[in-house]
Amino acid sequence: MRWLTRPVRSQGRHLADPPAAVPTRDRNGRRWAAVVGVLLLTVSTVVGIANSSKAAEPTIISLTFDDGNGSQLAAAQVLKANGLVGTFYITTSFIDSSGFLTRGNLQSLAADGNEIGGHSVTHPDLTTIGAAAARAEVCDSKTTLEGWGFTVRNFAYPFAAENATAQSAVRDCGYSSSRGLGDLRSPDSCASCPVAESLPPGNPMVTKAPDQVDSTWSLADLQARVTDAETTGGWVQLTFHEIAVGTDPSLSITPALFDSFVTWLAARTANGTTSVQTVAQALGQAPGPSPSPSPFSDVPGNAQFFTEINWLAAQGISTGWLETNGTRTYRPGLAVNRDAMATFMYRLAGSPAFTPPATSPFIDVTPQTQFYKEITWLASQGISTGWDEGNGNRSFRPLQPVNRDAMAAFMYRFNGSPAYTAPGISPFADVTLQTQFYREINWLASTNISTGWDESNGTRTFRPVQPVNRDAMAAFMYRYNTAFPG
Ligand SMILES: [Zn+2]
């Protein structure tokens, strides 16, 4: 998938019109500062005085990341290791889909001090879809991200495509700024453009930035955007997409290059005039409240299935345990037993009215057993009827862990045992047509509730007899609710 192409509009503008950019932007005398700076630099180089010629005006670098690509999570760890933060412009409909960040990832990014910004819902060219649709794309991205708990103030145009309509949409939806691309000097374009945006920007609805970083950029190219800006001071937003090998062929740089640049940049801040800030910080926006943390003390922002566990809690499906120190815990690594599964499913069904039978249908469950109501509800729905122990006795085995194959069967029955034809050839290396719950396992996979694992040998596995832990259970329920809303 290529969500972004080079911003054709701004490229074309520069190719058509490079000299016009120069005289229009030095009204504040910055060009003189640049000229003097260059002269001083020359002198200082000759006499061997390092750094004395740096412009006194601060240089602010913002590292921005577009679209919410999954490879940006590792990049954020590189930032964190170097004490830096960035701005992540999120296309909201991409989140939680394959190859992209999850809501849990966004929480952990924000918890580390990174900014979450808007980048539309579906990444359209806002200049081609009409005013109403553009407005919906821009406003809905903000509403969604705010609904997820983030303070969202800044936007970046998909494809850097903007016009008066798009600018109005951004302003009317309550964003304070929006980033363009290609209006500052770049490695292979805009040679006569300025090297930095002013602060505050001349037009906050189209802030100037170099071309997006792509696979043609070298370490020297990245460094030059910083050192060039240091001659005048001002603001440079660098825009990254994939920081990975083998993803997008053009809009990616290698993790090694990113690491080298960030390490160099972090050291560069020691000069006292260059700093790395989020877009919100660069624009002087007051920090917003932190996103709501998990109600569970053992579910940190970077926990796997953070979003799903918090969703489960918000739905009242699991309230966890109240610990003696007053905190609540979820115990994500604990295996789910059959009694707890009954309870999760009963609550997922909306806790329907149900009067449990006076006499237990199971020899190992009494009306005093914890979750008796939920267990007998599950049985009444035919979701789990337990085991025939002979002599007319049935058992439920409430404390037995639930494996993934049984989980598939529970979910299939919970869904009303819909008509479904399983594939004639198993897609899973560890599941055969004779495997118990073959049909249910494949139904579950067909709903994307659990699609199994890609193994390093190129096969897919389902791991049917692996126990389901509570964190994975939360993910199953969250995805079930997504697949079968209401
Ligand atoms: Zn984009």
Please give the structural blueprint.
Blueprint: H1 8-16, H2 30-47, E1 59-66, H3 72-81, E2 87-90, H4 103-111, E3 115-118, H5 131-147, E4 154-156, H6 164-172, E5 177-179, H7 219-230, E6 234-240, E7 242-243, E8 252-253, H8 255-268, E9 274-276, H9 279-282, H10 306-314, E10 321-322, E11 328-329, H11 338-348, H12 372-380, E12 387-390, E13 393-395, H13 404-414, H14 438-446, E14 453-454, E15 460-461, H15 470-483
Parallel strand pairs: 1-2, 1-6, 1-9, 2-3, 4-5, 7-8
Antiparallel strand pairs: 10-11, 12-13, 14-15
Helix pairs in contact: 3-8, 5-6, 7-8, 10-15, 11-12, 13-14
Account of the 3D structure:
- There is one protein chain.
- The chain has 486 residues and is α/β, with parallel strands linked by helices.
- It folds into 2 domains: 8-282, Glycoside hydrolase/deacetylase (TIM Barrel, Alpha-Beta Barrel); 306-483, no CATH class.
- The chain is built from 15 helices and 15 strands.
- Strand 10 and strand 11 form a beta hairpin.
- Helix 7 packs parallel to helix 8.
- It is elongated.
- The model is unreliable at 1-55 (pLDDT under 50).
- Zinc ion binds next to loops.
